[in-house]
Amino acid sequence: MTELEETFKELEKTQHEYWNVSRETAVFMSMLIKISNIKSALEIGTSNGYSTLWIAEALSHTGGHLITIEFWEKRQKIAVENLTKHGLIDRVTPITGSAAAVLAELEIKPDFIFIDANKAEYIKYFELLKDRMPTGAILLADNVLSHKEKVKPFVDRISADSDFQSQVLDLPAGLLMALKIK
Q: Domain spanning 3-180: which CATH class is it, in words?
């Protein structure tokens, strides 16, 4: 077992405490990043860095870079320690703060976005990012089934947007996948 795999296993033990994605969702994201040759990724909701490690490791295959935003300084510190331990910190720019406030100031055009933060703010994140996403960009949002009512405004909004094609995938907690088509 590799050292990174050992870290994944350790972090999976704290999945409920840190609200990490499932391994199935993480593996899916990793494969999607590699298949799509993602170069510019954005993660909203770093937590302890479980999904961040998966994304950064995948980006090490594509030559890409990740910006990850986390509200809680303590969680961001743990994530940075994990990324540093595995030599992936050079692939990542960690930012601590309110995601909506950071996104309002951040000038990026990500071709991959992963949202797993304040469920009630998913729609706000989408509104801040949708016009910055190039055609072909992929957006993933976790917890669209486990927190269905909280994310309903977001799911309804992106589903009705003719610039996006979206589908809810039956992965643990529910994962919305959207492709910017124009």
A: alpha beta
Q: What DSSP line would sit under 56-120, residue for residue?
A: HHHHHHHT-EEEEEES-HHHHHHHHHHHHHTT-GGGEEEEES-HHHHHHH-----SEEEE-S-GG
pLDDT in tens, 40-81: 999 999 988 899 999 999 999 999 999 999 999 999 999 999
Domain residue spans of the chain: 3-180
Distance from C-alpha of 111 to C-alpha of 106, rounded to nearest angstrom: 15
In terms of Cα–Cα distance, which of 120, 122, 66, 72 is closest to 94? 66
pLDDT tens for each residue of 11-25: 777 777 667 889 999
Q: 140 with 177: CB under 8 angstroms? A: yes
